[in-house]
Structures are given as structure tokens and as C-alpha cells.
TrEMBL record:
It holds the Pfam family DUF3046. This is Signal transduction histidine kinase. It comes from Cellulomonas carbonis T26. InterPro entries: DUF3046. It comes from the Bacteria.
Length: 75
């Protein structure tokens, strides 16, 4: 996962207002008590950060890859 894909999923799945705030402010135990942004800045793979953020926010597995992915799966 690229950083741009991470940012896109944050906005799409978590919301354009709330998502970026969570990345910046939500401390995640799964990331060593760091925010998602701190983990990314320290070189943690965006895929790992995305999973940790989704787990913490209770995002169901089927929603984690966004709407475009869900549409492709149904075809």
C-alpha cells in the first residue's frame, strides 16, 4: 500500500473530516502507543498502520478497502 492509497482510504472509509483527525490524534496501542501519523513518520508500513487504525475504530473487514474494492468483489 502506498501512502497515497492510505490517505485515500482514510478519507473514504473514516470520513473526510474525522479520518485525518484520527490519523493525527488517535493513539494506538497496536502501534506502540503512537498515533498513525507518528508511526508513518517513523517508517511503519502504511498497510500495518491502516490495519491498526481499522481495528481500533471497529471498521468491519468488508469495508476496509473502500467502496471501489467492494464493487469489484461483487462482479
Amino acid at each position: 500500500m502506498r501512502y497515497s492509497e492510505f490517505r485515500e482510504l482514510v478519507r473514504e472509509v473514516l470520513g473526510p473530516q474525522v479520518g485525518p483527525a484520527l490519523v493525527r490524534d488517535q493513539v494506538l496501542g497496536a502501534l506502540g502507543d503512537r498515533t498513525a501519523q507518528e508511526a508513518l513518520d517513523e517508517g511503519v508500513d502504511p498497510r500495518v498502520v491502516w490495519r491498526a487504525l481499522c481495528d481500533a475504530m471497529g471498521v468491519p473487514e468488508h469495508e476496509r478497502l473502500g467502496r471501489d474494492h467492494a464493487v469489484r468483489e461483487r462482479r
